[in-house]
């Protein structure tokens, strides 16, 4: 069995320092021989690896099934003496200008942390190195690793929201730049859908962070709970920013529809004004095109210039009036 497929990192940490790398099949032996905890990082592992980890740490079947299939909503569940946390990750794809979502599943016990990544997300190698440079914090155990992972994932939402705000600003400039098109309305709808997706990923984290701040369990020691308040504050900020973007997108859509209606109304005014002006020579031409035999103007030497003059004058008066009223 090739258990190494999908394993990014697997190490024992003692007194805040990385003590040794271990094989997945030797986790229990490593824990018996050394103090501290084990931190395992998996990236889209196959079922064999998850079953091996489950066997070593006696993880619940339902949690393993969720971690293998992915496509879960963010949640926090308790299985025996371990916590199971599901988080959604998000990254802005600069090429497609769309948000790519992924998932991270965390198993946290008294002496272990297992992270399982699926889909689009940044590697946790830099986070692990950052934690290893702070042994006084890593000494707090799996609870601090859980905080560090949650904080890292939540902070990745700030660039996503910033990108949404930048695109919203571009749309507003196009809307009020008298450049009306259906593409603007379509893109606003797409942005609203993306904001809703981010909202669905972030909103459950409020409850998760709140529960971790107040949970009374040996997995989350008293000196670690305040760290989750920092995650809670970040989640609240992101939620508020998303609400603001959503409200502005609604206002932008309404403004675009209103300005489009005004533009169409102006076009109708111009068409109506020109139709009224053209109606004057049309009417005169229609009268003199009826071919009546007895029409006094036909024998009048000044008839043609007078009729043409009257027609031009009336058209000029109408043009001037429409111009003043803004219809032309």
Tell me what you see in this structure.
With 328 residues, the chain is α+β, with helices and mostly antiparallel strands. Among the domains are: 1-137, 2-Layer Sandwich (Beta Polymerase, domain 2); 263-325, Up-down Bundle (Methane Monooxygenase Hydroxylase, Chain G, domain 1). Helix content is 59%, strand content 17%. The protein is built from ten helices and seven strands. It has helices at 27-33, 47-57, 61-69, 125-132, 135-138, 142-155, 157-175, 182-214, 225-288, 303-325; strands spanning 7-14, 17-21, 37-43, 75-79, 82-93, 98-109, 112-119. It has a seven-stranded mixed beta sheet with strand order 2-1-3-7-6-5-4, with helices on both faces. Strand 4 (75-79) and strand 5 (82-93) form a beta hairpin. Helix 6 packs parallel to helix 9, helix 7 runs parallel beside helix 9 and helix 8 packs antiparallel against helix 9 (225-288). It is rod-shaped.
Strand content: 15-25%
Helix content: 55-70%
Q: Pick out the low-confidence regions.
A: none
Radius of gyration: 35 Å
- Averaging pLDDT over every residue, what do you get? 84
CATH architecture descriptor name of the domain at 1-137? 2-Layer Sandwich
| Cα shape | rod-shaped
Helix count, per DSSP?
A: 10
Task: Give the gist of this structure.
The protein has ten helices and seven strands.
